[in-house]
Design a protein that fits this description.
about 160 residues; alpha+beta; 4-stranded mixed β-sheet; 4 helices
Length: about 160
């Protein structure tokens, strides 16, 4: 997905307003989480603004990371989540691994509920009221992803 095209689709159908008014639990996955943020650097897109967080492009030197090895964009692979303090993380081991595929990330801030790192720390999970977001793909994350989705269904 891509932020500006997705937001245009939501706005054309009035879903941008509808989504923000929802009272039941809402889970945004990957781009879905990013669209719940205030703004995305991806095509300079104003998003839904549920989370007062900016989405940025990984912009570190692509040949050498802070850890001395090359990091590729997009990030594709397994990362640990630390500080997972949502009911979504109930019954998961400490610092579980989840599968990520992304070039953009949400900055850490007041709504950060889980942190991961790819050259820099970023929000792997966000939460505010009935809105939840995860940057990773639980549907591709084996048992931890299945447990997270089950936890969401039981909210």
């Amino acid at each position: 997905g891509e932020a500006s095209t997705a937001m245009e689709y939501l706005r054309e159908r009035g879903l941008d307003r509808t989504i923000k008014e929802l009272k039941q639990p809402v889970l945004g996955i990957c781009l879905g989480m990013q669209l719940l943020c205030r703004h995305s650097e991806e095509n300079n897109t104003d998003c839904l603004g549920v989370f007062d967080t900016k989405v940025k492009c990984f912009s570190f030197d692509r040949s050498v990371s802070a850890h001395g090895s090359g990091l590729k964009v997009p990030q594709v692979g397994w990362n640990r989540i630390s500080e997972g303090r949502l009911p979504l993380f109930t019954a998961l081991q400490t610092a579980p691994y989840f599968y990520f595929v992304h070039s953009y990330y949400a900055e850490t801030g007041a709504h950060t509920a889980g942190v991961s790192e790819y050259g820099i720390p970023f929000s792997a999970a966000l939460q505010k009221d009935n809105f939840y977001g995860v940057q990773f793909h639980p549907e591709k994350s084996a048992a931890p992803g299945e447990q997270l989705l089950l936890n969401f269904l039981n909210l």
